[in-house]
Fold this protein.
Amino acid sequence: MFELAAKLSSLNDSLLLKALPTLCANLTNPDKDVRGPVISFVGQLFSAEGSKLPSVFSKSFRQWLDRFQDCETSVRKSMVEAAMAILFANTDPAVVEPVAKCIKTKLCDPDKDVRSRAWMGSDFMARRRCWCLCSRARFMFIDARACSGVLCLCT
């Protein structure tokens, strides 16, 4: 199914319009072995260089962003990685702002590996000055606070 959706995306975005909602229906599948690969694949579609999919499929994009709160640590880790790819490939504030906010929430994640990936990713993006794309999504060092023993930068 993933290969078919990838081919549809490369041929015509309107064809993907019919396939993406079917894929997104599995974003909340209770079986992590079904949910995990779908989340990763949809993240790849949204993070493709020059992709307009987050804007075109805004409802599906919001459903995908909801997976930052997934109960599975492995899913949250892959969400942080996919989100960093989206921030690197996209400059649209309507896409960048919600993704940056989601990454910020993972700085206080209960899992150390998720927090670590969020920190590494935010450091990388700050060095590339990508956080400056949207002032509300930027980290504000003045409002730093402690959260679960980890420094959490909150706006």
In short: The mean pLDDT is 76.
